[in-house]
Amino acid sequence: MMLDVTSATDLGEQTFIAATLHLPDDMETPPHLIFAIHGGGYHRAYWHPTFADNSYSFARWFTDHGKAVLTIDMLGMGQSSRPEPESRLSQAIIAAAHAEALRQITARWRGPVSVTGVGHSMGAMMVIAQAAAHPEMDRVAVIGWANEPMVLGDTDVATLQAGLIPSGYLATPRVPMRKLFYWDDVPLSFITADEAQGSTTPATMGRDALTPGIVHEAAARIAVPVLVVQSMIDTSPAPDKEPGYFRASPDVELHILEKAAHCQNFAGTRAQHWSRLNDWIDRTS
Q1: How far is CA 85 from CA 3, 95, 202, in A?
Q2: How far is it, in rounded angstroms, from Cα 110 to Cα 125?
Q3: Which of 42 and 27 is assigned the larger pLDDT?
Q4: Is the pTM value of this prediction over 0.90?
Q5: CB atoms within 10 A of CB 246
Q6: Distances 64 to 5, 68, 100, 126, 274 between C-alpha atoms, Å
Q7: Could you give the C-alpha distances from 124 to 12, 23, 140, 174, 251, in angstroms and in order?
Q8: What confidence tens digit (pLDDT) does each residue in 76-132 have?
Q9: What pLDDT was estimated at residue 21?
C-alpha cells in the first residue's frame, strides 16, 4: 500500500508511506497488530526478506501465530516519499507520518485491536519518539537500540559522524558493520544478499541516531509496557541499564538474545527471539 500522510507532515507536498499488511490466513481482522519499523540502511523487507526462505520472515512467523503485521518504509527510505531538500525532515515529522499511517490501517479494523510498536535500531529510536508524541500504541518493543552511549562493532560513533553529509540521503557503510549486524553463523551469501537490498537513509536521521541521549526525554514519557531487546553482540555497552530510561512505563522487561548480533531476525536463534516477543505481547495484552 501507499498511504497518503500529507496532512500529518506539513511539508507542502504530497507525502506517502509505503506499507505492507501481513494477515493470518484464517482471520480477516485479528485482535493483535504489530507495527514494525526497520532500522537505518534497511526498508520494510527486513521483516520479510524476499531473498531468503520463509524461516527468516518475522512477518510470516507472527501471522502463523495469529497476529497481523504492518511493516512500513520509514519516511525518506525505501519506497516511501523522499522529500527534497532532505533537511526539512525531522524526528517529529517522521513520527507524525508513521502515526498517521498506523491510524489509517487501524481505522479499517473490524472490532478492537491491540497494537504493539516494534522498532529495530534506528526504527526503535523512531518508535520511542512516536510513542511519546502519539500515545496510541498499547505496548512498545525497543530492539537493538541503546539509550546508553552506543558501541558499533568495527567502527565508532565519531567515525560515522565524521562521514555524514550535511543534508541529503546517504548510504550506510555496511561492510564495517558486519561484526555488529551478523552472528558468525549467518552465511556470507545471506549477508551479501542482505547488503544488496539496502536503502539510503536521511542524513537528519543518521545524525540523530548517533547523538547520545537523543530520545532520553521521549523514553521517559512512555506510559505503556516496554520490552527492551539486546543481543549478545549489539549496540548497548550496559544492557542492564536500558530499562531505567523508561521511567513512566508500568512494566519494563529486558531480554538478551543469545548467539545473536544486532540483526536478530537473521540469527540462528531468531525463532527464540520471536517466541519470547510473542509471549510478552500476550502477557501484556
Answers
A1: 21, 18, 10
A2: 30
A3: 42
A4: yes
A5: 26
A6: 30, 9, 27, 27, 12
A7: 27, 23, 9, 19, 18
A8: 999 999 999 999 999 999 999 999 999 999 999 999 999 999 999 999 999 999 999
A9: 97
Q: What is the amino acid identity at position 23?
A: L
Cβ neighbours for 280, distance < 8 A, ≥ 6 positions apart: 139, 141, 225, 227, 253, 255
Whole-angstrom distance, CA of residue 280 vs CA of residue 135: 19
Could you tell me whether strands 32-37 and 68-72 are parallel, antiparallel, or unpaired per DSSP bridges?
A: parallel
Residue-wise pLDDT for 176-233, tens only, equals: 889 999 999 999 999 999 999 999 999 999 999 989 999 999 999 999 999 999 999 9
Q: Which three cell numbers stand for residue 78?
A: 525505501
**DSSP per-residue codes, the chain:** -EEE-HHHH-SSS--EEEEEEE--TT-SS-SEEEEEE--TT--GGGGS-TTS-GGG-HHHHHHHTT-EEEEEPPTTSTTS---SSGGG--HHHHHHHHHHHHHHHHTT-SS--EEEEEEETHHHHHHHHHHHHS---SEEEEES--SSPP-BTTB-HHHHHHT--SSSEE----GGGHHHH--TTS-HHHHHHHHHT---EEHHHHHHHTSTTTTHHHHHH--S-EEEEEESSSS-S-GGGGGGG-TT-S-EEEEEETT--S-GGGSTTHHHHHHHHHHHHHHT-
